[in-house]
Amino acid sequence: WLDLRFLNIDDLYSQFDIELVQNLITNDEWNKFNVYLNMNIPFKGKSNLNLKQVNINVWSIKEQTSLNKIFKEDKNALMIFFDYNKPIFYKWDYYLFISSLKNVYYQNFTKHSEKFKFLYILWNSIKKATKIICLDENTKDELIERFNVKETKLNVISWFFPWLLKLEKTRDTEINLLTINNIVNPYFIYSCWNWIEKNLNRLVKAFSIINKWDTNYDLVFLWDEISKDINLRNLVIKYNLQKSVFFVSTWTLSERKFFYENALWVIFPSLYEPFPFSLNETIFFQVPIISSNINSLKKVLWNKANYFSPI
User: Fold this and answer.
1) Closest Cα partner for 223 from 271, 268, 284?
2) Distance CA 7, CA 19 (A)
3) Where are the beta strands (DSSP E) in the chain?
4) Separation of alpha carbons 81 and 78, rounded Å
5) Is 121 helix (H, G, I), strand (E, B) or coil?
6) Does residue 174 register a pLDDT over 80?
7) Rounded mean pLDDT of the chain?
8) What whole-number percentage of the chain has pLDDT above 70?
9) Measured in whole angstroms, how far is the alpha carbon of residue 171 from the centre of its chain?
10) Cβ atoms of residues 297 and 291 within 8 Å
């Protein structure tokens, strides 16, 4: 059984997990796969696949009560949980798939009770897992050092970027999006989330220093959520960068392709990054990358990027 209730079809990590599970189902003819879902995901399988819609949200009370009851009734041979969504009273064998420990190091909880709940469920999940599967060596090392997990309990799988095959069908846009957005200079792109560990405040400050030396460069934030970030917009005003920093919302892949293919660099200033799923499109469109020099990124990008200190 696989607990995939967390899936969000628009999320890159979800896309990775969907492809991972689909390959597992397709290439394993000996085992039967049963999948718990909250949304309709069109997994393809023959007689070895059963999809079960449960509509129980992650981190909810029902997850700890009703879902655990469903698990017990289904008599699961082996469960696979992704991240920390295991009910704390689940008693049978399970594998735990951990993509990141970001929330341990960069906590963004509004209440102390939320922080306690997260850390308790995380510790419970790690401690009782039969096996823990990671995407990268960095997360593996953190589990050994911070949570005292035995190395024999840990496996690191081969990662891959999702969506790459689908990107090949992208068509060129017929309009000049730079003119529409009033971008006239060569530009850098940032195209990821606006979480605290992404280091965007320092990125804007660094760009303001560059802008004092040479005003012939622009910075484009290519992500809809970032365009709504009031704090980041206020920082742009503080450094008087309104004519050099652009917030662009793009809704189609062809629009993003246009911006990527006309960019100088894609910049990636993260302070913490287990596996950079958001560089998926950047790598496919072969845009030069300038990245923070943290080990987890260097192990993925090797000589495909230029590096700088994120501090």
Assistant:
1) 268
2) 12
3) 2-3, 33-37, 49-53, 79-82, 94-98, 131-134, 154-156, 187-190, 218-222, 245-248, 265-268, 289-292, 305-308
4) 10
5) helix
6) no
7) 90
8) 97
9) 25
10) yes
